[in-house]
Amino acid sequence: MKKYDLVDEALLAAGPDAVWEALTGELAGGARWWVPDNTFEPVNGAPDQVGALTRVTVHTKGVDKGGKKIRFTARTAAVEPGRRLALAYVEGAFRGTAEFTLAPLDDGGTRLAMRFRAQPHGALAVLANLVDMDANHTRATRAAFARLGRLLPAAPAPTASAGPAPGVSL
């Protein structure tokens, strides 16, 4: 049976707080930057709360374009606000995990990474032998991260700590 262990990441100009807000907003149904490939629908609470369920739909031809829809449910397993959001796929087309990590960059931006470790389940397990799902997942995730990067404003540049002005003693 196919197993996936994929990591996709992006360097974003926005700061970690803005990226965190956009990530949790998208998982809460925002449909701002993962569309047209994926949509998310909260089931029983905010996705940044441990135990919350989120329905995920992968639109293989894009939202409202027909094509196969791959559906599964994620349960929030761990939350470190602004740093890490871990999900467990508990029902539907996948079983496994996804983990989003955010790391601040020296320039005020953020490194956003998603690690997808899962196995296709049910009918998708058969289809996974015929379709390059690794490449499709990476393409969709990187495209979503690129849309996110265009959506969010850049973080203000960090200010260098200035020493005393010339001729001023401390």
UniProtKB/TrEMBL annotation:
- Cross-referenced InterPro entries: Polyketide_cyclase/dehydratase, START-like_dom_sf
List the SUPFAM superfamilies hit by this protein, alphabetically: Bet v1-like
**Pfam short name (any one):** Polyketide_cyc2
Q: What is this protein called?
A: SRPBCC family protein
